[in-house]
Amino acid sequence: MVIASIDLQNGNVVQLKQGEELILKRDDAQELAAEFDRYGEVAVIDLDAAMGKGSNMEIIKPLLRKAQCRVGGGIKNVQQAKELVSLGAQKIIIGSNAFRNPEKKGAGKAGGEFAVNIPFLNEMSKKIGRQRLIVAVDARLGEIVVDGWKPPTGLDLTEAAKAVEPYAGELLFTCVEREGTMTGIDLDPVRKLREAVSCQITVAGGVTQLKEIEEISALGCDVQLGMALYKGKLNLADCFTASLNWKKGQPKETDDKDTLLPVIVQTPCGQVMMTGFTDASSLMQTFTRGNVCFYSRTRKKLWMKGESSGNVLKLVKMRADCDRDALLAIAQPAGPVCHTGAWSCFTTGRDYTWQLLQEILDERLKNPAPDSYTATLDDDLVREKIMEEAKELCDAKERDETVWEAADLLYFATVLMSRSGVTVKEVFDELDRRRKK
Fold first, then answer.
1. Looking at CB atoms within 10 Å, which of 173, 255, 294, 372 has the fewest?
2. Global pTM value
3. Are strands 200-204 and 170-174 parallel, antiparallel or unpaired?
4. Which residues face 204 on adjacent strands?
5. Cα–Cα distance between 362 and 86 in angstroms, integer?
6. CB within 8 A of 212, min separation 6: which ones?
7. Terminus-to-terminus CA distance in the chain, angstroms?
8. DSSP 269-315
9. Which residues are annotated as catalytic?
10. What pLDDT, in 10s, does the model give residues 231-259?
């Protein structure tokens, strides 16, 4: 997986060299998150919180519902971590506090004594789940550094990684001496780290070439990108393609040496639509066109789904599986995808979901037909109907009556949501937030 980083300082997206020198600044965090999410998770790092100089939480909150985010920077306790998870964070990155020695006076301050903080990591792992916890093992020349990569801790990178692994589902290794320099990654510590632990590893610091991404991915590690991405040295479509395990793919029945990887297409609400195959060229066309493209094994050439029918699959995001040899394309279908005319190759019809109801209502509100009842519902009338239907649902005695009245209430509530610009996803996100509190 390729992970793009959004580093926040004083309300802006920034890139720093060696964690200090400001190289670039921009103010489009939400737009970046939406774009980066097409290719993988997004690392959102609050530099101000990490350095004890403030917080960018008001910028971070909306990002957590716009993209699959892993969040780090100044997270000091379980309460902060749980709150971020409830707001939508996929994973939590813990840095300096993982190496505060809880038994020494002065621990927690720059210049204090350091050790792997087992009680803190144990509590964090139990409360939010090991698979949600990432420990940042930032190292300079093989030694763990903390507090903005300044104080050396005396802790060996490999030994520290082994000690934290029982509590973390993943390690984030930053090669500090290369960070922000665009001079390439030092693969030696990456190899040693990979041999030392079995958990997932994400590598950052100095990556500037596709070859490096291929090499890091071949070691079974993910790659986190910053400076090279922002300065245009690398782009995410190329990086995503380079990170895949093409060697395990199915060989093409042609003279070239390319291989094919399977692609499963799924709607944003979870319905599986079809499967196909892609080579590197057709995958790049998917990203370029914004519609899912495949390699046709029968025609032996690239083809875009819906090319003739218009029933294209508009790409939302692309994900690789754990072995990087199969792809999941989340896409919005413009119509039926099966050659038989069925909505899905795996069902005979379209699943009727709450999201589908809202899509239908949105269309009727935007392009009202002369006989459309939905279009006649202004704000006052729809609120009156919601109160009326809520009472009728409460008064319902029979099962069939309850189903009927619940359907009426859901319909009118969804009309009000659409008129107010509220999506079904936002409601589900709020329910999910409450579940994780």
1. 255
2. 0.86
3. parallel
4. 174
5. 29
6. 184, 185, 187, 223
7. 29
8. TS-EEEEEEE-HHHHHHHHHHSB-EEEETTTTEEEETTTTTS--EEE
9. 7, 138
10. 999 999 999 999 999 988 777 776 566 79
